[in-house]
Design goal:
The protein is mostly helical. The protein is built from 19 helices and six strands.
Length: 460
């Protein structure tokens, strides 16, 4: 296929150099955006009198026929073309002749590719947000169902205080809600049209950038033509937001792996999201959770690669910027797939409430409540803390729990203890009393669910 830039040179490039230069193998996924943008560009050119109405009609019909043929499989994108813009323009010219050569008036591949990427990422922001909302809804439903299911809460991976399974799930809901908000906010800065910036300096033609942007659904138009073609902040920002999403998924995946082990046994994963061993017939491996955790490094790599491409890059457009696509495409594809699989996996996972409750009964998770009991009886907290620490140490030495420690033994440590202490350290009571805003009480969890569901309405 003839190079668009043939003229200053003969257009012939060494084969190995051509392979390095070509982007068609990965930017061909932008064919819909490229054609849509070209149709809008032709309409603007016609409206401004730069091409005739008849030429616009011919160009538009030709582009629509190319789009339909690619969608149906009748036209296969030629991987020998330099890029998707070259392929579509060449195909258009072969179909309609000289009118096709007028399409590129008042634009450059520099602003064209920036436009395609922004259109593509606007749609991907919406898709990412939809998948985050789906995951949040699943978590809210499960949290509501298990709002009073007691389990251990951990700090430093050591049993800390009793919480509910519903409260645990809502912690991740809060994270994913922030992620959805970040994606929505990120889209605002993607939603800026660069078309009409051309190579870097704008154009002498009487073009209308605002009209063309409105046809394509952009809310803003870039104010500087150099920035319009050289900015890839929006790629960095979307990859950053995706990396944070993947961080949250990875943390959740790590606990999913732990909670599904025989040692914990808090949850049972559906067979659909596990695999077996090639030699150990008893194995049920949490491979999907492990893959989500593993792919996090990949998304981080995409972000770092994009940042590195831009570091020290002079204005305006440089061929280095072609490297944006594979990073962005990979980051988007990876996170979308992980969100989809993870949502289904968590929805089908079954908690083992007995195991969770049994684990909460050991490890002195109610020691803080014992200290609070003394404080409410008039003891200073730091003194109460010391007394309860000594009681825990004695329980460990005697092989007892706080519940089995006798009142006489308690009184050896403080006369403030009385029979009502056992009600104070009951696990269900410990959880129900934590009614502070955002706390683990069943009523608190239900309030969190209500807040999150209201927030989801705003997102939608």
């Amino acid at each position: 296929m003839e190079k668009l830039w043939k003229g200053r040179t003969d257009g012939k490039v060494d084969k190995t150099a051509e392979d390095l230069n070509a982007s068609i193998t990965f930017d061909k996924r932008l064919y819909k955006e490229d054609i849509t943008g070209s149709i809008a560009h032709a309409k603007m050119l016609s409206r401004q009198g730069i091409i005739t109405a008849a030429e616009e009609t011919e160009i538009t019909r030709g582009l629509i026929s190319i789009l339909n043929d690619i969608n149906s499989g009748r036209l296969v994108i030629d991987d020998s073309a330099e890029d998707i813009h070259t392929f579509i323009e060449g195909e258009l010219t072969s179909r309609i002749g000289v009118s096709g050569k007028k399409l590129h008036t008042a634009r450059s591949r520099n602003d064209q590719v920036a436009l395609d990427m922004r259109m593509y990422l606007k749609a991907k922001c919406d898709e990412t947000e939809e998948k985050l909302v789906a995951l949040i809804e699943v978590l809210c439903d499960k949290a509501e169902k298990y709002s009073d299911a007691v389990m251990p809460g951990y700090t430093h991976m050591q049993p800390a205080q009793p919480i509910t399974y519903g409260h645990y799930l809502m912690a991740y809901t809060a994270m994913f809600l922030r992620d959805a908000d970040r994606i929505k906010d990120c889209k605002k800065r993607i939603d800026v049209s660069p078309i009409g910036s051309l190579a870097l300096a704008g154009t002498t033609y009487n073009s209308d950038r605002f009209y063309e942007a409105s046809l394509l659904g952009f809310k803003e138009v870039g104010i500087n033509s150099i920035d319009g073609v050289s900015d890839r902040d929006f790629c960095v920002e979307i990859l950053s937001a995706l990396a944070i999403i993947q961080t949250h998924l990875s943390r959740f995946a790590e606990e999913t792996v732990l909670w599904s082990t025989q040692e914990f046994g808090y949850i049972t994963l559906s067979d659909e999201y596990t695999t077996g061993s090639s030699i150990m017939p008893q194995k049920k491996n949490p491979d999907m959770a492990e893959l989500v955790r593993g792919k996090t490094g990949r998304v981080y790599g995409d972000l770092m690669a994009m940042l590195t491409v831009l570091k020290g890059l002079p204005l305006a457009y440089n061929k280095d910027m072609q490297e944006d696509k594979e990073c962005v495409f990979d980051g988007v594809d990876t996170v979308l797939k992980c969100l989809e699989v993870f949502t289904k996996m968590i929805k089908s996972a079954e908690p083992n409430l007995k195991k969770m409750r049994a684990a909460a009964n050991v490890g002195f998770l109610n020691a803080t409540d014992l200290a609070d009991y003394l404080v409410k009886k008039g003891e200073a907290f730091r003194t109460a803390y010391k007394i309860c620490g000594e009681i825990v140490a004695e329980c460990i030495a005697k092989g007892k729990t706080l519940e089995s420690f006798t009142l006489e033994e308690y009184k050896n440590h403080s006369e403030l203890f009385s029979e009502d202490l056992y009600d104070a350290i009951d696990l269900d009571a410990c959880v129900k009393r934590r009614t502070s805003y955002g706390g683990t009480s069943p009523s608190g969890v239900k309030k969190q669910i209500e807040i999150v569901r209201e927030s989801l309405k705003k997102l939608k």
